[in-house]
DNA sequence: CGATTTTTGGCAAACGTTTGCTATAAATCG
DNA sequence: CGATTTATAGCAAACGTTTGCCAAAAATCG
């Protein structure tokens, strides 16, 4: 019965631009221009067209447009898969902030997980090279690369967030991890602390390097030796944030000369650490001061409320999107490939001068 | 210089199917079939084509394919915008689980936020009617509807998750909120509790209705009056999870006859509530027992560790994706429009028998 | 009022695939 | 070995837009 033998879809879906044109009594091209290119068509015909479009409930087909103009309106965010996801409180906030900014710019957000397997790398590359996405925001330190195809030379605008990848030539939006940790360490030193306990994230990870570096800088500035800090953790993924704190507490228990201040690289590990060492009879901040990184809201309601360095994720998300849209719009990529947005310490009761 | 005057894209982007065909010395259509329809082409030519494709780093253009076949391979997840996002710990887990399942099925996940404004409704409808997405998983109770276009009759397969929308004819994947709360309330009654304090989520919200209903059912079953439970909160969004707990603590303080057991509808509010009432000198579970809903990992590290009802979000995500893909594949939509996956109580030290 | 410029609308050719149909080559059969 | 079936490959027409170019109409000018 169907006249059109080469029918592809199953349902006629919605109204087409041709339908709108017919109803408005104009050509298809006029409809197209009326909808997209305000100035190019007479005000009166445009009104007619708009009316027709509304009446038919017309919605332009995104794929047809994308194909024709050779651009999609989708941005993908590349998350370091199970490594990060759900681990740190920051990811949902990052997503929300990025999505909000993107939509204002007329873009949509697609999620891509970059795990350690080749499958996921290939998948991301397919997205990039298949014209599905227009740009990428990456939260992973590794750029997918398989069989000669590499995200780096996909021609896709890419912005790195959280991690500094300016070395790889990527615009990067980061916070001042190092400086923030240095400052808080300096503050602890000023309060009288001399022995420190550092809860590391995954070994070699950018954040870990930066943050531990910050500790060392503060120690050096105060004339303290590197031995004043004991490093714990580092062999677990961020995914196991709470586990890191648990293990570190065991570690801590075995030290003969207890540190008086703990610097944790995420709130999760700080929380589980605190929970465990309180159980051994130590009090916070009486016996040991604790400060961590992330700024999770839950820190306010721990006992005692935890001091934490709040990452400005919303601002970072906005900045990343701005940079990406700039790059897409060919507005000259500002020479600066590194955008730093400052973290703030939220001081709470978990920090005090050491006992004696 | 460019011969092709009607050039659309700016860069030649990657290799085209035509390039592969030329290199392999076959027709375009043969390439297409070789890549998609294994059996339809001779093994030998197929090998030649695959080699050519790999050599050129060919990636099929998703939009062209989508346009031709009239289907996209993108699924959108509709989140209740700022209402939920970042509030409850469950969202990131939901996203991860859904994304993982989708990718295995060859689909991609796009994020859509449904806020209370018309803009976001329109945006989602554009996605649906513009052929951008192939199906939707919705975590919001409201179906977007503007100007006669409604998601309900977009023809798009939709699955509701977390919220039961089977009344609206949507396949729904939910947990047994009511039953779980009823059981835990019954257990509290068994322990000897007779006066309860209920921390409500947003008033009228599905979860709130179900969970509060569970409390009432347990009371009734035990022959206790509805007055045995004091309801607090309910006028704030989930977004303000922690705030709800804080306000509820004030509320609690004013009660002359203190309840001995608290049932909270999210971990966030339980955590802030506990923090505040401990500050007033009450002890948990000595003076008051606390149980909440969600199963956030952080509960294990609260003091005392919080009993919580763990929502099986991973399983729910998987189930939602399965149902959606079934619907897309026209496999008869199983008559059951309601899939229930059971929650489990994780009992911890925050629950005990009342004092006297 | 004729000539020139500016607006406005239409035609048709893309964009990169998929796929129905058809043509050829190979295989099978009587 | 000719006839019939079956496997394989190619042609060309879609899919629903956008947009370069041109033609007609309207406006402006001398």
Automatic annotation (TrEMBL), chains A, B:
Keywords of this protein's UniProt record, alphabetized? DNA-binding, Transcription, Transcription regulation
GO terms (molecular function) for this protein are: DNA-binding transcription factor activity; transcription cis-regulatory region binding
Which InterPro entries does this chain map to? HTH_LacI, LacI/GalR-like_sensor, Lambda_DNA-bd_dom_sf, Peripla_BP_I
Where does the HTH lacI-type domain lie? Answer: 15-69
Keyword DNA-binding applies: yes
CDD domains annotated for this entry?
Answer: HTH_LacI
From the UniProt record, list the coiled-coil ranges. none
Q: Which Pfam families match?
A: LacI, Peripla_BP_3
User: What domain of life?
Assistant: Bacteria
Matches recorded under SMART domains: HTH_LACI
Is Membrane one of the keywords?
A: no
The protein in question is named LacI family transcriptional regulator
């Amino acid at each position: 019965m169907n006249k059109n033998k080469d029918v592809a879809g199953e349902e006629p879906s919605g109204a087409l631009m041709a339908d709108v044109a017919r109803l408005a009594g104009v050509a298809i091209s006029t409809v197209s221009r009326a909808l997209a290119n305000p100035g190019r068509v007479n005000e009166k015909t445009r009104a007619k067209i708009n009316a027709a479009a509304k009446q038919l409930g017309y919605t332009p087909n995104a794929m047809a447009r994308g194909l024709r103009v050779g651009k999609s309106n989708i941005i993908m965010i590349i998350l370091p898969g199970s490594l990060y996801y759900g681990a740190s409180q920051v990811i949902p906030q990052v997503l929300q902030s990025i999505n909000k900014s993107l939509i204002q710019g007329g873009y949509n957000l697609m999620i891509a997980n970059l795990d350690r397997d080749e499958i996921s790398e290939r998948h991301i590359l397919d997205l990039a090279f298949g014209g599905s996405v227009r740009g990428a925001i990456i939260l992973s330190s590794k750029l997918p690369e398989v069989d000669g195809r590499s995200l780096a030379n996909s021609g896709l605008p890419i912005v790195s967030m959280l991690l500094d990848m300016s070395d790889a030539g990527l615009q990067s939006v980061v916070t001042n991890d190092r400086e923030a940790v240095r400052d808080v360490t300096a503050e602890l030193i000023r309060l009288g602390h001399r022995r420190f306990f550092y809860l590391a994230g995954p070994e070699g990870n950018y954040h870990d390097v930066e943050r531990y570096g910050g500790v060392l800088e503060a120690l050096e500035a105060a004339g303290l030796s590197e031995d004043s800090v004991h490093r714990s953790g580092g062999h677990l993924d961020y995914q196991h944030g709470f586990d890191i704190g648990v293990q570190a507490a065991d570690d801590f228990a075995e030290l003969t000369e207890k540190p008086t201040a703990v610097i944790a690289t995420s709130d999760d590990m700080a929380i589980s650490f605190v929970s465990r060492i309180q159980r051994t009879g130590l009090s916070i901040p009486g016996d040991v001061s604790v400060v961590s990184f992330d700024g999770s809201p839950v820190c306010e309601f721990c006992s005692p409320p935890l001091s934490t360095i709040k990452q400005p994720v919303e601002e970072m998300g906005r900045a990343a999107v701005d940079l990406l849209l700039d790059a897409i719009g060919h507005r000259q990529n500002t020479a600066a490939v590194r955008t730093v947005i400052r973290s703030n310490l939220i001081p709470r009761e978990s920090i005090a001068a050491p006992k004696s």
